[in-house]
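In this section we turn from sequence analysis to structure. A common task in structural bioinformatics is to predict how a protein folds when a small molecule is present, because the ligand can shape the pocket around it. The inputs are simple: the amino acid sequence and a SMILES string for the ligand, here zinc ion. Study the lines below before reading on.
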Amino acid sequence: MILTYCYRIKPSAHQITLMSNTLELLRRHWNYALGQRLDALNRSRCQIDRCSIVSEPIGEIPERINYYTQQADLKQTKILFPDYKNIWAESQQVNLQRLNKAWERWLIPDAHGRRGGRPRFKKPGELRSFVYPRVNCPKAGAYLQLDNRLKLSKIGEMPVIMHRPLPEGFVLKTCTIVCKADGWYCCISMQDNSVPQLLPLDEVESAVGLDVGLKEFLTTSDGDTVAIPQIYRQTQHHLARQQRKLARQKKGSRRQAKKKNHIARIHQKIERQRKNFHYKTAHKLVKNFDLIGVEDLNIKGLARTRLSKSILDAAWGAFINILEAVAVKRGVRVVKVNPHSTSQNCSGCGHKVLKTLSVRLHDCPKCGLLMDRDENAAVNILNRAISEVGLILPVRGGLGVALPVKREAFLEFDGSQLSFSKLEAPVIPQG
Ligand SMILES: [Zn+2]
């Protein structure tokens, strides 16, 4: 399992200058390397049905550009621009690896045939993090010491605020230094050899279906609701006022920079409040149920409608990711089901009862079932989830309201039988 913990660091003014300088140099190098790749691509391809004077290689055919050629060029970069000697060499390599990843994501489709967008040139200040790919090992660039100090090569030693201890039994892997609106952070990723075990199906005692919505954040199949906090909506007038103030500042001035940072901090607060709410809700659900059924929503599609601001403010997608991460740690199953007509079908008899969004009550003319619209949908989702995993349980009332049972979260296994890479190693977001 891989975890990432983020801690605030307290660099000195001189160290901040060094780190900002590192980010700026890496940004320029990113732009150069991206330009080199795009140029090589443009010069060596031509549309299939024409002979182009723009795209055809003239003279010598440019050599193939890939990660390895670019990494080999780093030596030359350091000779031409001695400033690059002040950056840890591995950080520069990771910077190129990141570009290579984005590049391949753009050109090579994944299993679903989807590709990412074209990697972009970065404006000043857009590159906000750099990586030390080795921590606390021989030849590492970063050392997290026991006295809560972080030692970074080429930058120096600085205090770390360890607001929570590192988990035991994990090996520290990488250290990413991030510049956020409210200061600098180090994100430590670590790994151990445990593989979270899902609860066996015959031990599943309680299950629940969740219907997410805009009236209530979610409705469970038991009829409980969680109110929607609408964090962005509460702050948007304040935010708009600050943005108007920013527009009045002189470009490039000190005050403009200050105002920009103020606005960035407002956004950061919104993000943190939302994340906090998501984690609390997820923990509450995972504590009480062994199996959770959710809709597999197309958030991008939904966010193109008129309700986009509310949908993005609720951030169901982020919530479901967090729910899955929290559930994996406890062995709880999260089952994603097809959301097609879950709110229209009757959960009692399966009859399709068409209703618009404003109709809040489900009233089945066939079997006479009368219940809240969202609850009906949640029951449908629960039924689908149960049939998907092949659990044979009475639809309603059959599942006892079992008290949460304390159990071992992970089972250790010895690596002799199975290599770690063959097993799922879920990446769990910090928090
Ligand atoms: Zn019915």
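The CA atoms of residues 245 and 259 lie 8 Å apart. As an exercise, try to locate the residues that line the zinc ion site and compare them with your own expectations.
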